[in-house]
Amino acid sequence: MDISPKIDAVYQRALLLKQRASESPIHELLLQQALEELYFVLEELQASEEELFEQNQELISTRQTIELERQHYHDLFDQAPDGYLVTDDKGIILEANSAIASMLKVSQQFLIGKPFAFFIADDTRRAFYVKLPQLQRLEKLQDWELRLCPHNSHPFDVTVTLTTIPNSQKQPRRLRWLIRDITERKQVRQLLESLNTELERQVQERTLQLQQALDFAASLKRITDKVRDSLDENYILQAAVKELTLTLGSLCCNTCSYDLDLGTATIRYQYKTSIDPTLNPFLFLPDQIVPMMTFAEGYHQLLQNQDFQFCQIDAVPHPAILACPIADDQGVLGDLWLFKQPTEAFTELEVGLVHQVANQCAIAIRQARLYQTSQQQVEELERLNHLKDDFLSTVSHELRTPLTSIRMAIQMLEITLKQAEAGIGKANTANHYLQILRDECQREMGLINDLLDLARLDANIDPLMLTTADLSEWMPSVIAPFRDQFCQQQQRLQLDISPQLPPLRTDFSYLERILSELLTNAYKYTPPEGTITISAQATAASLQLQVSNSGIEVPAKELSYIFDKFYRVPRNDPWKHGGTGLGLALVKKRVEQIQGTIEVAKEENWLTLTLHIPWDIT
Fold first, then answer.
1. Cα–Cα distance for residue pair 215/222, rounded to 1 Å
2. Model-level pTM?
3. pLDDT-based confidence at residue 521 (cuts at 50, 70, 90)
4. Cβ neighbours of residue 155 closer than 8 Å, sequence gap 6 or more
5. β-bridge partners, 327
6. Which member of 44, 266, 372, 522 has the lowest number of beta carbons within 10 Å of its beta carbon?
């Protein structure tokens, strides 16, 4: 109520009283005093009015500010990104912002007057009712997790921060609910937990892998030490197979060596730790030969220096198999096969270990083979040195023997001539000693000529004189001189010469000496009533010429030495013809000069020398 008009009215009334008092007979002094006090009161009232006006203005301003703040709060409340509710102590919704309405998929107006429990999911509603009475005694509650169930939608997780709003009697009557959707946060937390679990699993797996790698490294060192300390190929493969089987816990392991020319794999060693029947189709005997064509696809991959693992799938379970080549930069030497249970597979670490062991085996096998080769070369050098000593001894003996006979014949001839001069000797005695001189000189010249021929053939300094001839006419002329010799020793000659032999172009001087030496050799070593067979047949590429004789016993181990210089068949000279031991050595050299081959074979008491002479020399 505005009091200024009333003060003005009082002031006007005081002035009127003053005027009337001046006209009245009342004591003027007292009246003046009363009026002054009245004016003083009026002035105080006026000052109070002004002060009250200012306070009223301030109150209006404060009310406007409060209204603005209340509107601002309402806007913040309504536009907040998190959900806000205000309920009474029973949980009845009094206020709700748009965020919580959006969460619950209803309108704000729909929420007013509804119990908040109506929107709590069934699995957390009981806990909500238990907790609600306790909220009155709390000033604030944070991070209370609930599950809300929106209208016609799926439940979602929220956290609630709750504060109490006291009423005018300072008693909590209303509750303010700050509600935040934590679905994504829970998903992130679950993802983090899943990632942590996976990380822990990977750490454990990696730790196991590192431990396994350390174990494999120790096994590899142990295997490497074993195989590198040995020059025995069999021991190398046995050690590798056994150690791999035990280290990898395999059912079985075997190893093969390859013969690439024959296309075969030979089982060298096999080690198994189980008698699992699924292994039966894959078990082999030692030294069993497996043709590569039986598993062409697999061996093709192994020959490309590539490993592979597989497991056959059919009604009967089969083991898991890993095949790894044993190879180096010079080629594939063999392979390693490992077998596991059908439900298992070879890991990358295990395959790597098998590869490294295979590489070490390849190095060790090469070293072992190199050592064996060097040993063979040393033995061959020792044999050649022995042959050289035998050669020098034989040459010395062969040269000395005719000279001894010649010297003795000369001495006896001198004695005979002196006796003849004295008239007591016989003329035919001198002729006998002269014949000995001629024979021994011829023998000496033959040996020297053979040695010179051998030297020229080794040096390959004589050119070939190539001519073409008809073999059906040429061969009888070479054989003819030997017929009388065969008859004298009661030896039978059989000829098997094809009548339709094509013309041959070669050096016939070489071929004649070759055939003559073979016939001479047969003549020397065939006993009486023995048979000498000469056959000539045509093949597509060459003339096949064979000279066979019966009644000769040559040990099988001696056949490889029959073409060596000064070699003679032991205790097989029934006619005691003797010889230098250079005949067959010269034959082989001459055959090679005309680009042919010669080989020897023995069957019962028959010895056969077979020549292959090309139809034309390139």
1. 11
2. 0.47
3. confident
4. 121, 123, 147, 148, 149
5. 332
6. 44
